[in-house]
Amino acid sequence: MLSEGQRARCSTVLRSWLGTEYCDGQAVRGVAANCVGFWDSALSDARGRRPEVSSVLRYPRDLSIHDPAASLRAMATFLRHHKPRRRVDPEKEALEDMDTLVFRSITSGVGHVGLFFEGKVWHSGNRRVCRVSLDYMRKAMRLSHVYRCLDVESWPTL
Fold it and tell me: Architecture of domain 4-153 in CATH?
């Protein structure tokens, strides 16, 4: 669980991304980012690490529709950068701040990722980085996987 100082740092990091325009293949705070670019960059910044944007940005936007298996492999690659972590069953455990939420559409593979913080899903949607309720996200997608970083005690504070 995050300390107050870590929570303050995460809040500052995430709020600095709000309003960043959506654009495929980008991960530049205040300029443009896709969902994976935002997720990797914001989570890396909160953890005091460099993002792994080179591997994150080379996948096409519609990968989950045309090749669901490749979509899963891509997400596994991205998650390797954020070890140690564990998978969380949201039916058995409450979501915690900075959990990674992986979504899929009803008919295709993994297609969207965001961060859970302050009871909201923070993500780069169709237009910009924003925060919405989990219920809102579930109207269009299914929560597929939840991952929690296990090294939060080592994350920097403000």
Answer: Alpha-Beta Complex (3.90)
